[in-house]
Write a structure and sequence with these properties.
alpha/beta, TIM Barrel, seven-stranded parallel beta sheet, globular
Amino acid sequence: MDRFSNNFTMLAPMLYVPADRTDLSEVLSGMRDYGICSITVCLEDAVRPDNRKMAAIALQRTLDELSYIARPTYIRPADAKAMQWLLEFLPIDKIAGFILPKASVESIHLWVEMSLGLHTIIPIMETRDALDSVGRRELAQACVAHSSQIPGARIGANDIFSLLGGLRRPSGRTVYETPVGRVIDGLLEAFYSQGVKLCAPVCDRISEFATLERELKEDINRGLFAKTAIHPNQVKAIWKSYEPYPDEIEDARRILEPNAPAVFSSNGDMLEPSCHAEWAQRLIVRDALYRKASKAVTISSCENRNLASRHKPQ
């Protein structure tokens, strides 16, 4: 995967779709207006265990038939056995990589070995190891060991809720206003200290847009992007929240000026290049990627609409 695709994957929302959807071909070909996002086709929790094999076969058939995949598309197999089947039978050149559920140190090493170092793997932190400081550190180190294949990791908030005594996110609360928030902050400490990026967790209260908006602000304050989306209505709100504010861009550029003072003020804030340079660099990269992706997807959407109109029955 090229650098732009990796950066896009770690910024844009990731929309999860069950593999047994009857309109999967339309979803993957871009005929559904889902906005700017990557796609994960789920063969794990979103599909009944007794239907996963048929869903995998249907996915194989769909990918074989499609000549164009509109968005970076990842597959989430249920386990290593399912992963092996997909590696053997899917047209691998049409997908961006694999999502590793219930990641452990052992499974991270195993999946990288199974993929022969050729495919992007994104592990999900959602086991008891994620609750333990030693476990978190070991998971981060496993990701670092395969940094060429692992651009970052995701956070499985709902599984962590379940591990914490069978909890569920209360209505009207962001994830950071629950016990899972402390787990996420622990993951941040362990992973960011190793240079491993993390993605923002799902907000499963689909109809609570005010809660989603508050949670997005907390995500961004923690440097968490690429939020999991489980409904198309969430995608546009998530993507829009990732656009940097003009005053942030101005501050970032001033911080990165070669002759910037050691300390200076801007809009009532103190800026210190020695401490804020990395923030500024990340924000400038985020702004460039945001504008490039927005432009590319706008052009692609127009092309898809034209294609659809040409195939519309007269």
